[in-house]
Amino acid sequence: MSDIESLCLSGKGITKIFGIGDNKTIAVDHVDFEFHEGEIISIVGESGSGKTTFAKMLLGLISVTEGEILFQGKPRDIKSHKNRKEYWKGIQAIFQDPFSSFNVFNKVDSVLLDCINMRGGRKLPKEKKFEMMTEACSFVNLKFEELTNKYPFELSGGQMQRLMIARIFLLKPKILLADEPTSMIDACSRATILDMLLKLREETNMTIIFITHDIGLAYYVSDTVYIMEHGRFVELGEANEVILRPKADYTKRLISDVPKIYEEWDLNTI
Ligand SMILES: Nc1ncnc2c1ncn2[C@@H]1O[C@H](COP(=O)(O)OP(=O)(O)OP(=O)(O)O)[C@@H](O)[C@H]1O
Ligand SMILES: [Mg+2]
């Protein structure tokens, strides 16, 4: 497959400016990017560097001040509500705070049923829907029977994160955007969740975009890394290349904050 054919999401000169005059913030400043099918990309940068703003533009949750985003090689048209809904079948997100991602008045089964309906399964027999929900829960090591009558706020942080992945399992978007998905959970569940996401990519060839402060995580999971500083991509490329042989001073500084990578690096180079 050629590069163009596998192009999933791309953009040139993408910019977001909040406010006007003295209150102006250039949150994302003329960034170029090309994400391909099945690629795992990490966007790494310090707090305030523009990561979430960039993610929100990709999702179409906020407008783009300048530049154009292409979805599967074509200009994205999400002006109408109908087109936006269609676009969101292709791109889904897991956010920093899972509590904000669910409607608090919807029980777990209706959260999952919504996903089946969104994928055109509204008319499927009840038993089939039950089977799909059970399968999605077991994919993330949750027991559907134990959750079915609960509201999302009755779940633990880790269970909620896993429920979000179960939703993605049912929705099967082309692109998954995960903004600090593992910040709420301990290191052990974190590894499990990352492995689930990687498994999902194996099964569906999903493109996964991770947004994180953690360059160690980027090294572990991604094919490609984009380093973001003050709204710009100061360095990008193959994860090994960028992290083991960083060129930009900013990348070097991010790496020096994570002694673990240096240890791995030493082991790899002995
Ligand atoms: N709605 C908004 N109105 C005005 N300024 C905003 C808005 N959203 C974000 N900003 C500003 O844009 C800049 C980038 O913010 P953003 O949330 O994208 O950073 P981030 O890299 O996601 O940070 P963190 O790692 O802390 O989540 C910041 O200076 C922030 O104050
Ligand atoms: Mg953020």
TrEMBL record:
Alphabetized GO MF terms: ATP binding
Q: Read off the CDD domains from this record.
A: ABC_NikE_OppD_transporters
Q: Which Pfam families match?
A: ABC_tran
Q: Which InterPro entries match?
A: AAA+_ATPase, ABC_transporter-like_ATP-bd, ABC_transporter-like_CS, P-loop_NTPase
What domain of life? Bacteria
Q: Which UniProt keywords apply?
A: ATP-binding, Nucleotide-binding
Q: Where is the ABC transporter domain?
A: 9-255
PANTHER family according to UniProt: ABC-TYPE DIPEPTIDE/OLIGOPEPTIDE TRANSPORT SYSTEM, ATPASE COMPONENT, ABC-TYPE DIPEPTIDE_OLIGOPEPTIDE TRANSPORT SYSTEM, ATPASE COMPONENT
Q: What is this protein called?
A: ABC transporter ATP-binding protein
- The organism named in the record is Clostridium hominis
